[in-house]
Amino acid sequence: MSYATLEHARAITADIVRAIDPVLVLMFGAVARGGKGNDLDLLIVTDEADGIDSSRMESQLDSLLKTYMKEISVDRFILGVRKFRDHFRSGSPFLNVIVREGRVLYMKNAENEWVNDAADELKTAEFLHGGGYYKAACYHAQQVVEKYLKARLLGRGWELEKVHSIARLCALAADHGIVVPLVDADVSFIDSIYRGRYPGEFGLIPLGEPSLEDSKRALEIARRLFLRE
Fold it and tell me: Which of 12, 21, 157, 177 has its CA at a distance of 20 to 30 angstroms from the CA of residue 105?
């Protein structure tokens, strides 16, 4: 058998999405870590509310994977969304490792989910700012920008990656034809918030705790993204 690769993972995921319309397809194991491995490990989360019989769904998946199994080894795990949430919340070591180290290949309604999460972060930042918690307000404002940019990138077909640099996300956005209403000074400021989120890290912290003005500026930058909605 050949090595399983990221290209195999993407092709199989596209077929899975067409066949059963999952909520989430997450890759873990060697291919997720290094781009290739002896086998391909996939966690497939399905929407139990859609009424599809689980045994029939598993039969569909196995039939779909037979073609690929002639070339590579595929291990697939399938869970309904409620079971996934219950097991994860109960501290399942297996799911904790997958979520921490895995790579998302597909998420249903990803753009809307991430935009909604960014909107919640903005409400949190505004609440903390109003209470005088300027460091926390700055951090959540940074999360607004990060999640909003990821949402728009996912809407253009970008494959989610674990990146926190706003400068990199802005560069990716430009490559995907997304207009971001931030100037270089805004990007540098927001990136400094993330770098300075822990004591002793280079960012805002070595220059002192974020001030009222820092918090106001972070919120203004975060709000600017939603003015385009």
Answer: 177
